[in-house]
From TrEMBL:
InterPro entries: Pep_S46 (IPR019500), Peptidase_S1_PA (IPR009003), Peptidase_S1_PA_chymotrypsin (IPR043504). The lineage of its organism: Bacteria, Pseudomonadati, Verrucomicrobiota, Verrucomicrobiia, Verrucomicrobiales. It comes from the Bacteria. This is Dipeptidyl-peptidase. It comes from Luteolibacter flavescens. It is an enzyme of class 3 (hydrolase).
Amino acid sequence: MRPFLIPSLVMAALLPVARADEGMWLFTKPPVRQVKEKYGFEITPQWLEHLQKSSVRFGNGGSGSFVSANGLILTNHHVGSGMIEKLSTKERDLLKNGFYAATAGEELKCPDLELNVLVSIEDVTARVTAAVKDGQSPDEAAAARRAVTADIQKKSYEATGLRSDVVTLYQGGAYHLYRYHRYTDVRLVFAPDVMAAAFGGDPDNFEFPRYCLDFCFFRAYENDAPAKTPHFLKWKTAGAQENELVFTSGHPGRTNRSVTLAQLESMRDSGFPHRLEQIFRGETLLRAWSDRDRENARRAKGAIVGTQNGRKATMARLNGLLDPALMARKKESEAKLRETAEEAFTRIEHAEKASREYEMRLRMLEGGDGFGSGLFGIARTLLRVADESAKPEGERLGEYRQASRPSLELDLLSTEPVYKDMETLRMANALTFLCAKLGATDATVQSILAGKSPDARATELIQGTTLDDVEVRRKLYEGGKEAVAASADPLILLAKLVDEEARGLRLRADATGEVISQAHREIATARFARDGDSAYPDATFSLRLSYGVVKGYMDGNVTIPPHTTFWEMHERHANQGAIAPFDLTEAWKERATKLDPLVPLNFISTNDITGGNSGSPVVNREGELVGLIFDSNAPGLVSDFFYTEEKGRAVSVHPAAIQEVMKKIYRADRVLEELTH
């Protein structure tokens, strides 16, 4: 089950101008001129199409690529870890011990994983913008845009059967319809043990040098047979050399390089501090619970790693926004556009100020921060899908439209195990957080707690629900509004209790977002007129191309080389006392002498990436796979707001390292044969 998400209140706007190796480029607007001028390589339509159709989007927020004609997919271990954890049991811990399907029949079917491959892109800007009329209020304009978007997606889905998403680009400067081939039968093929995959753990996260084998393999199936995938990336064991031109094709989740100074200040002063407080609470709670019992530790492993990752990333980004030099740079670049779009900037400033009146309630009630439970998210989904299905398509909330229904059903009816003890723990923590943020005497808070303490109320709600049973969910889902209305499940009743206020907050946020979006379109027009094809849009979890070179950097007086090796990995293992998170399995230690110590393990490049790029393939001029993105170094994290090539780097696993350990440590001969022949 995915965490409950809401559309962002903050709408990005200013269009970034590419410098150096900067840019997360659209496949419909690739950096042909920039790459040709700087590196002498011409990106052709054929090269681009092959890369596009070899690239895979993971529905849980990551990227991957086909690496064989039979649906074999390479991605990061940390992208696949949620699925690996779901496939684990108390008796068979696949995270701890790893997994290898020695035969096709042993490949494990994932309970709720959706993969998307981009098939086509259509510009629908004229249709979307024509729906909003002059003189409409923000509420009316937002409703008109929702209606036309829903109509475009519905008609596309009915005509093609493909997943159809209208993607907002340039913060309202353009709208594109992305059509995806959807794979919902996905099976785990191979995963290394987590000690090797996440070697160095939290201490080494977002650092370089690194020594991680952060990779795993899945396979897409259709009609109960491996999918036929003629577009796939050929394996190049030698990888890429220092200073060689390389490209990444992936799905960066979101950047904020285009937002105005006022929006960055809101993130700095409100958004990120709130998120950090939430993260610190959750990490402390889960660690204490994990330390009590080995089974607790297994169940909480993924959540703890995700929380730690979020902590370090959020702290780095907040640190960037607290850097006066970076904020001054933003103010200076904004000043040049204010000359032609002053009124638009002012409207955004006013909208940001107005949103502060309700943003905390929005986060806690509609955003789900006050509930902290996947089971509550299920209850809300059941309630809302029943309500929204009765409405015309254009009036529904986006996640409940017909085109989104297959993904919703896959998630809602997942057979993923639910651990009520952990759900109770997390909900009690969230309810306490709710009291701290809205006040224990707040009328809504008192209604939610029903006269009990957060601990007692969480226990009552989670232990009393039956929504952990897939068949109960299915009956409520298929029974529709009548079945949900008749349900006495405590979490359904809680969802009903807060739904009216939560929906109202969402509508206010949508109206504010419309004001911001319209202002950004004016700014975008000014930026396009000035910068032309050097402008690229902020990331939107849609397929993007970036380019760069394999290259080290200087950290003070220290030269950081572009590659690490197995020799250095084992040296770090020994120097850190061979204790967690620098330990290795006994099987690894027994076979480690067979590894070539000088084989490159991880490498860095100047490619422009962000969250969501995890699992992206790195390819050379010939379109061969020469690496696997898995991280950014710490200086690169500020690239959410400002790209920097001085020290910021993308970190990748080298294909030679993957091949070396699959052959000599894990003995995964069947997969290795498929990769290299």
